[in-house]
Amino acid sequence: MGVVLQVAGSLGLFLFGMRTMSNGMQHAAGDRLQAILNYMTGNRFVSVLTGVLLTVLVQSSSAATVMVVSFVNASLLSLTQAVGVIMGANIGTTLTGWLVAAIGLDFNVVAAALPAIGFGAVLVFVRRLRRVAYGEALIGFGIIFLGLSFLRDSVPDVSEFPHLLEYLTQFGGYGRLSIVLFVAVGAVLTVLVQSSSAAIAITLTAAFAGWIDYPSAAAIILGENIGTTITANLAAIGGSLSGRRAARAHLVFNVIGVVWMVALFPVALQIVDAIMPGSPEVTEAGASALPAHLAMFHTLFNVTNTLLCVGFVPQFVRLVDRVTPGREEERELGPYRLPIVLDQIHQSPEFYLVEVRNEIAKLGAITERMFTRLRRVFEGDEYEADRVVEALEREERFTDEMRDELTKFLASFSMESLSKRSAGDVTAMLRVVDELESIADSCYNLALLGQRRARKRLEVDPTALPDLLAYLALVSRFLVFIREHLDERVTREQYRAARELETQVDEGRNRLKKAARDRLQGGGDVHTELLLIDMIAHLEHIGDYALNVAQSLAAPEPAAERTESEPPEGKKAAPKRAPFASEAGRRQHR
User: Fold this and answer.
1) Looking at residue 261, what is its pLDDT?
2) How does pLDDT run across 259-305, given as a tens digit for each residue?
3) Phi-psi region of 75 (alpha: psi -120 to 50; beta: other; left: phi over 0)
C-alpha cells in the first residue's frame, strides 16, 4: 500500500509540474497565444504545425484535442481543419518522452530540478523583473523532474519480486498477440490517469526499472495513443455532429496508425535501434539509452502516421463522416447550450476566450436581427405584429439563456490564471454580454408596443412615420457598428465615432419627443402619441446600451481623455432591465 501511495504522490507531483509549466508558457505567450487560431486555415500543413504548437503550449494532447472539439462545436474550425490540428497534436505529445530522455532516468534529476525551481522562484517573487510567467514555466519544469525522480525511486527493485517478474514476462511470448495485449494495457493506463504524458512517464519508469522489456514498453506507448482519444470522445457527447466527428477523427486516426504499426512492429524497432545510439536492453549498470529509444519510437510512429495521412485529409474526413453518420438539422432556437467543454478549461484558459468571443458575436448578431424586424411591427397589421412578437419572444428568451450561460462561464475564470490583458477582456465581456441582452429586451418591448398599436388600431400620424423610421435606421446603424467590432478592440477614433452616433440618437430622441408633444397640443390622439414617446424612449435606451458596449471594447485611454468620454452630467444610465421583461409583465402588457 505504501508503494501505491508513493507512486500516486509522485505522479501527482509530475502532473502538477506539467500544469504549472503549461500555465507559465501560456502567460509568457500572452496575447499571441489566442492569435494561434488565426493560423488554423484550410492549409492542412499549417494546421498540423498549429496542432504541434498547441500541444506543446498546453502540455497535453488530450487537452489540445478537447479544445479542438470545442472549437468545432463553436464553428470556429471546420472538420478538415480540425483533422490537421489533431494530427499535429499527436506529434506535440511526444515532447514528454524527449524531456525524460534529454536528462535520463539514471541522472541525478534533483541536481537539475532544484536550480530551475530556485531561479524560477526569483523571477516570480522579484516583481521588478516582470518575468513571472517565465518563472512559473521554470518552476513547473523543475517540479516535473522532481516528480520523475520520486516516481523512479517509488518503483521497487525488480530483483525483489522474481516471481512477479516471471509472471509478467510470460505475456511476451505470444508474438503479435502479446503486442496487442500490451497495446490494450497502454490504452487502459491512459484512460485511468487521464493524461498521455503521465502514462508515458509511468511506462518509461517501469521499463527503466526492468518491470517490462523494451518491445512491451513500445507496445504500451502505442496503446497510450489510443487511450488519449477517450477524453475528447467523452467531451464530444452531447455536442454538435461536427464536434463528435472531430473527436471520432482522433480515434480513427490513431487506431489506423496503431494497426499498421503493429503489423510492422519488429521492423519499426529495428529502425529505431539503427537511428538511436546505445542499447535499449536493461543491464545491471542501467539502461540509459532506453528512454531515448522509446521517445524515438513514439516520435517515429506519430510523425510517420501524420506524413502518411496528411495528404488524404479530404478522404479521411469522408471516412469519419461514414463512421459517424447523421446530419446537422437547422432548427428553431431552443434551450441554449454553451458549445465549450469545461473539462480542460483550467488547463488552458486563454484559448477558451476565443470561443467566448465567438459566442458573444452570435449574441450580437441575434440582437441585430431582432432589431431589423421591428420595422414590420411599425408598418404592418395585427397579424404581422403577432408574428413578429412571437419570433422575438423566442429570441429574447434565447438571449436570456445565452447571457446566463456566458456570465456563469466567464465568472468561473480565475483571474490569477490569466494574463493581465485577458483578465481585463473577461471583465469587458461580462459587461458586453449584459448590455447586448438588454438590447434584446428593448427590442422585444418595442415589438410589444407595436403589437399594442396594431391591436388597438392606433394610426400613427403620417407626418411622424418617416421621422420614426429614420430614427430606427440611425439606431440600426449604431447596432451594425457594434456588431462589426465585437471581436476586436475599439480604437479611440472608433469610440469617438460611437459617441457621435449616440449623440445623434439623443438629439433624435429630443426632436421626436418635441414633435409628439406638439401634436398633442394640436389635438393629436393621446394614446398614439404616448405610445410613440414610449417607443422613442426604448430606442434611445438601445443607443445607451450600444455606447456601453463600445466603451467596454475600447482600448485604454489616458485619464484626461477617459474623463471626457464619460456620459454628459445629468444623463441617466439606461435601465439594466427594461419593463415587461418578466413573463408576468409580458402577459399584463398584452
Assistant:
1) 92
2) 999 999 999 999 998 888 877 775 554 456 788 888 899 999 999 99
3) left
In order, the DSSP letters of 313-379 are HHHHHHHHHHHS---PPP----S-------TTGGGSHHHHHHHHHHHHHHHHHHHHHHHHTHHHHHH
Q: In terms of DSSP H, where are the helices of 237-264?
A: 241-263
Measured in whole angstroms, the distance separating CA 155 from the mean position of its chain's CA atoms is 37
Q: What is the DSSP letter of 36?
A: G
What lies within 8 Å, CB to CB, of 513 at 6+ separation is 533, 536
Residues composing the chain: 590
Domains recognised in the chain with CATH numbers: 2-323 (no CATH), 345-589 (1.20.58.220)
**Per-residue H/E/C for 499-554:** HHHHHHHHHHHHHHHHHHHHHHHCCCCHHHHHHHHHHHHHHHHHHHHHHHHHHHHE
Per-residue buried b or exposed e for 359-369, using 16+ beta carbons within 10 Å of the residue's own CB = bbebbbebbbb
Whole-number Å distance between alpha carbons of 344 and 70: 10
Q: What are phi and psi of 490, to 5 degrees?
A: -85, 125
Task: Identify whether the C-beta of residue 499 lies closer than 8 Å to the C-beta of residue 547.
Answer: yes
Q: 296: part of which helix (H) or strand (E)?
A: helix 290-309
Give me the mean pLDDT over the 93-117 stretch.
68
Indicate the range of 29-38, 50-59, 179-188, 452-461 predicted with least confidence.
Answer: 29-38
pTM: 0.59
The amino acid that residue 159 corresponds to is: S
Lowest-confidence region among 165-169, 300-304, 490-494: 165-169
